[in-house]
Amino acid sequence: MDFRKAGLLETEYGAICMELDREPNETELKIFGVMWSEHCSYKSSRPLLRLFPKEGPAVLKGVGENAGVVDAGDGWGLAFKVESHNHPSAVEPYQGAATGVGGIIRDILAMGARPMASMDGLFFGKPGSPKTAILSNGIVKGVGGYGNCVGVPTVGGKTLYDAHYEDNPLLNAFCIGLVDSSRIVSSQTAEPGNLVVLLGSRTGRDGIGGAAFASVELGEDTKSSRPQVQIGDPFVEKLLIEACLEALDLGLVTSMQDMGAAGITSSASEIAAKSGVGMVIDLDSVPLREPDMSAWEIALSESQERMLLIVRPEKLDQVLALGRKWDLEAALIGKTVEGDRFILEKGGTVAVDLPASLIGGGCPEIDWPSARPSELEARQAYEPGEDTTGRNLESDLLGLLSSPSLRDKTWITRQYDSMVQVNTVMGPGAPVSLVRIKENGNLVALTMEALPWACHLDPFRGGYETMARSLRPIWLTGARHLGMTNCLNFPSPENREQFWEFAESVRGLAECCKDLSCPVVSGNVSLYNETAGSPILPTPLVCSVGLIPAGRKALLPGGWKEGDVLYLAGMDNAAIPGSHFQATRIGKIAGRPIPPSPEMELDFMERALRTAEMEIADSAIPILGGGLGIALCKEAVSSKIGADVRFETPTTSPVTLFAEGGARALYAVPQRNAFAFLQVWKGFPLRRIGTVGGDELRIPGIPPQSLKRLEETWRGD
Amino acid sequence: MKAAVVVFPGSNCDRDVLHALRDVAGIQTSAVWHKETSLPENTGLVVLPGGFSYGDYLRSGAMAARSPILGAVREHARIGRLVLGICNGFQVLTEAGLLPGALLANSSLEFICSPCFLKVEKTDTPFTNAYRTGEIVQFPIAHHEGLFFLPEEELDDLENRGQVVFRYASPEGNAGPDYSPNGALNGIAGIVNRGGNVLGLMPHPERASEDILGCSDGLGMWNSVKSWLEGR
Fold it and tell me: What kind of fold does domain B2-230 have according to CATH?
């Protein structure tokens, strides 16, 4: 077999032969083809990922495990990660999305954590196109079908429509779980003489080579890739969760790993390499769904709902009994040994004999050439005012409010169980989700953010703003951030201009993380999101996690009360470029988003935290997509009360209403607390912009809008 | 007497109802694995929780209705002790023949998770005597098969006997089919058996039992069963 057919580069094949001092056999070659694919090896992104700060006082387990873990107080940890399932969702939306949810849940489980909440990032193509209708329906039903059954609430997410995702929709799945921090499971703790147990579903031919499939551009005929998409079984996943957690409770597990991309091969070789042990796996012991599977098919099958458990010999009987209790297959398939050989046997002969560390860690990095896009200057050419004069502000406001990306998403979120586990304090639909930890009473604040338009215009600034924007809603509630995870969705890195955008976006994210002391604890990279030369926009997606101590009240949006004073906190330099206004109302993205201002962010953070802690505001909403105008509408609709808004300027500009970016928030403060509020924000840009009351939203330059009309527009009725 | 929550494979609200009974309402409660054939001694209330028993891959609740523990649950019901089926548990009770009717796919053919208003139609049951008749309460729903169905004659019979306990309603208190989020006949959200000791409902009282979750109307149910259990 030719190494090119396995998807390897000549240099990579050379490295394999050199390390092995021989040519790999066909099964080994197929293993390298998958394990050294972009999806598994991160060969194109590793140099960039090194830019991320990974340390922080709250980090209990950082990058390198299945998910990062941060300190949630009182001996509890939060394990979290976000991962893409873009290619499978493009080909088979329901199963692609479902198995994306299932996969990330197992990553959290692999840390020993009970999965407690999920979020989903959805990026669809042209609103209303037949393709978007099919893909969005299938993906939403897949997320719900899996998450609802497995009993992990979907508490939030992000949905964005843009023609660039027409052929390449994105599905990013986030999960967070709670773990006793003295009991975090590691893939580094296997010892020689342990046994290897496969728990869960039988192994079939589904999803073979899925990781490699995710590492190339989609072909014109994506249907031919169907066999590479896995089929999900959320019922078995639920049993697997309970069985694994029970095994951990009983102290039966030495190490554990989920089986995602590249199946048995990646999970087993990863434990071996990280623990510094060798491993011998008998492929004939693997329970199969269909007979006559060859060694490489068994080794690389991506059949879902399987976990690999490393156990001491004296615990084996109890583990197998647990499998019987939960009606799961549990099979002894191998053992760990001294040394570093990763050996797969079949039919009494050795099918694979490789150094464990070479499989997962040996792939040489690729330093793709990078070049600033030649048309970047044209992209960034923008005269302020050119697209903001002579606008009909009323139709712009209502148009934005009803735009697919900003309108009410109940059609999606009501298909998700957002309340199971009875911890959901703030569910989908708000800029931040809140989940309580029953065990200690702390509240977890979660956000998901991505700004592809801004990243397209200026990837560094866009990346920075994405990160900052994921943290601001967390601060407003009164939570301090603990860490973040990210999913880097980009097109092919082999195009030098696309690689430049990728690198600059990561640099922006990393810079912001450093400036704001937010460690990156886990993440995922998804490249090659393009079809037939039509790439997605650069889409780095960030999920941030924060914590409110028990006993403190969270400050949330939707709490306007009659007579409250409205204050806009933050600088007046937000930009039209990259905004929803520009994308959906003007129809052409141009210009540059605002530059970072770290001191301002940190100052804003402390004041926002203090405001929440003092309980002096009734409501707070960050200025996000759609700008101040949309923030006002959403607050009015969700609070069921109007407001009289006044600006100091004689005329209202679209910039005032629709510009985006920077540390800004809209507060509603009772009169009696106005003085205390002003004290907190003294020295920070702050404007009084109106008062709450009535059943209309009155904005200068726009005829008064009844709440009913705003709500109907927002809901798309 | 005490309470027990049956855990079927695929139940996912078992821990939630345990939390509501034990931690919130202060009722001594244990979990019972579905492969057991008897209930713990002195069990006064058995809860069949929500979730996706057996993945709902067959008709919802059909497999769980044939679990070993169901023998003990039937006997428990026969001697007049309390059985509560929530969501998937309600589906199990209809499949097991402990309650009449069937729960069909929602009229939208979609899963619906939503806050929901209910009218308490019947308060002379051990599950609802802490409520006022006609009181409007808020329990969320989260299901794909919640359309309560009975043939017309049997439905009339059910209504005439006053077995309807909860009906979907507007916040102002109008109740009936127009307010069914799922197309349930007569807006029926929950019913009791003729003996009044077996209650099944689609909405989730355990999700409405703490202020921090936005609503604590479900406490009325836990307080009702608590006083029943304490009286025995």
Answer: Rossmann fold (3.40.50)
